[in-house]
Amino acid sequence: MSKEYTFEEVAKHNKEGDLWIVIDSKVYDVSKFVNLHPGGANVLYADSVAGNDATQAFFGLHRHETLLKLQYARLQIGTIRGEEEVIKALAPGELSTVPYAEPSWLADGYFSPYYTQNHRKFQKAFRKFCMEVIYPEAVRCEENGKRISQEVFDKLSEINFLPMRLGPGKHLEGRSLMGGIVKPEEFDYFHELIVNTEIAHFGTRGVVDGLFNGGVIAVPPILNYGSPELQAAVLPDLLSGKKFVALAISEAFAGSDVSGLQTTAVKDGDHWVVTGTKKWITNGTFADYFTTGCKTETGFTMIFIPRGEGVETKPIKTSYSAVAGTAYVTFDKVRVPVSNTLGQEGAGMSVILSNFNHERWMVTATSQSAQRLIVEECLKWSNQRMVFGKPLNAQAVIRAKLGKMISRVESGQNWLESITYQMNNMTYAEMSSKLAGPIGLLKQYISKNGREIAEDATQIFGGRALTVTGMGKLVENFHRTSGFDAILAGAEDVLGDLGVRQAIKKMPVNVKL
Ligand code: HEM
Questions:
Q1: Distance between CA atoms of 50 and 45, rounded to whole angstroms?
Q2: Number of other residues whose CB lies within 10 A of the CB of residue 133
Q3: Which of 299, 371, 401, 410 gets the most CB atoms within 10 Å of its CB?
Q4: How, if at all, do strands 18-23 and 26-29 pair?
Q5: Burial class (CB in 10 A: 0-12, 13-18, 19+), 318
């Protein structure tokens, strides 16, 4: 490895059985690898490659991470004397220097009124944690579709990951958040925004939803409406990732139209008997409990149902990874104590509504971060890809697409941060009355942006955007999964309409054109 060569020495190794190449000042002996090369042998025997500096050819066809994989890294036998590597992978926690790859508050030389030194310290430590603990697992699980390992959940529990994902509040009291970097009483919605942003920045969408998203939406009804006994019995294990809960509302019969749901709970003494089905239940495959919306005599009621006799889950194949645990859930005469009711009987709608703002805001935050990653991918690719003898970004049509993508991401970020600031300064009741409309409109705007960015990125990457591995793998994943943001937590158009209807409701009576 430490051996140094000149380009002249490398040039002598340019034939079958004795083949060296140089990539970014590093010398690789590919004599044996050549027959295993996924791109074929003959491309490596080309005059411009064999015994030559193949840096440009390599980066036109591979991601940098290819060279970092152990099986390929060990092909390196030395370096070129007097030359230094130029292309460096980011160290865990390090910020990207690609323009617009980071929100402006993290970009060198830019400012923001929203973030404190504590947010910066928290972001740095949390990104490092994500890259070291979550990212390797995310890549594995996205491919094999298996549940995230208990070992990783235990590490998440050490930093109090799920409690932080539930936002600021009493549930954080006495907890050490991210190794104590932020005090529980100082944790605010910008800290939570950082958490949502970082976990969505790997391009592994199924894993983001598998990472306690079920808990983020299913725990608050227990936290806010469960009896003290129920809370004491289940919250410690739920918040520490030893047990899992899924929110079971939508059915094949009804989604956004919650009043059309058919799962029924009938009283029999001091028990509910629940019968019905639920569909598209995120994290349902591996959930131990279900926070379930049921039709009861007095209306719509939320009931906490443990997995047990009469409860069955079947994985649903979706266009993203099975690690999200998307399930079809069947309740067949399931008996649950009436004390498992969350909130008042018949008041289930307000239990669900009370959490919708937070859930929708979370979806916009993760979508926004995933979009920014795609902008970075496109900026890098169009800079390194050569077409007609020039970088791809020399084409005006590509620059026009990049311009639109950047504007979408920056405008989304600014609106998201402005709403986050409102959340930080409002009571929960104020948020419910003042932010439901703006968050609905924001979610519509951001999820639409996501699909438009996916379309433009696909055009920029061409055929590479269609393959699950290789150069365009993140664009492919985003193109396949960005539509989820337009559906989960409320359909895009329904939410846009909610925003407008709320505005109409608040129109003053004393104004006319
Ligand atoms: C140490 C050197 C190299 C290694 C370890 C390597 C490894 C790989 C791997 C793993 C792939 C599969 C796609 C991916 O995962 O990105 C691939 C594809 C390919 N490689 Fe290489 N490669 C090397 C050098 C080169 C060079 C110098 C060329 C120059 C022409 C080349 C041409 C190709 C082509 C044409 C493909 C197919 C690309 C595609 O399907 O889009 N490779 N290589």
A1: 5
A2: 18
A3: 371
A4: antiparallel
A5: middle
28 Cβ inside 6 Å of ligand 1: yes
Q: Ligand 1: does its nearest atom lie under 6 Å from the Cβ of 74?
A: no
Q: Is ipTM over 0.90?
A: yes
With beta carbons less than 8 A apart as the criterion, state whether 370 and 204 touch. Answer: no
What are the phi and psi torsion angles at 127 (to 5°)? -65, -40
Mean pLDDT by 10 residues, the chain (513 residues): 91 97 98 97 97 95 94 97 95 95 96 97 97 94 90 96 96 97 98 97 88 87 96 96 94 80 96 97 95 95 97 94 94 98 94 90 97 98 93 97 98 98 94 94 98 98 94 96 92 95 96 95
Span from the CA of 78 to the centroid of ligand 1 (angstroms): 20
**CA angle at 231 for the pair 229 and 236, rounded to the nearest 5°:** 125
**421 CB neighbour count, 10 Å cutoff:** 15
Domains and CATH numbers, the chain: 3-80 (3.10.120.10), 106-211 (1.10.540), 232-346 (2.40.110.10), 355-505 (1.20.140.10)
CA–CA–CA angle 438, 443, 447 (5° rounding): 155
3-state DSSP assignment of residue 186? helix
What is the per-residue pLDDT for 256? Answer: 65
347 Cβ inside 6 Å of ligand 1: no
Give alpha helix (H) positions in 110-203. 117-129, 135-144, 150-158, 161-165, 189-199
Report the nearest atom of ligand 1 relative to the CA of 471: 16
Mutate to test the pocket of ligand 1, among 28, 62, 69 (most ligand atoms within 8 A of CB): 62
Q: Which residues contact 368 (CB under 8 A, 6 or more apart)?
A: 197, 200, 409, 412, 413, 416, 446
Amino acid at site 225:
Y
C-alpha Rg value of the chain to the nearest Å: 26
Instruction: State which ligand 1 atom lies nearest to the alpha carbon of 469.
Output: 15
Substitution candidate for ligand 1 out of 34, 53, 61, 69 with most atoms within 8 A of CB:
61
CA of 243 to the centre of ligand 1 (A): 43
Q: According to the model, what pLDDT value does residue 94 have? A: 95
DSSP 469: S
For residues 358 and 381, give the distance between their C-alpha atoms in angstroms, rounded to a whole number: 35
How much is the pLDDT for 254?
Answer: 80
pLDDT of residue 212: 77
Residue 64, ligand 1, Cβ within 6 A: no
77 lines ligand 1 (CB under 6 A): no
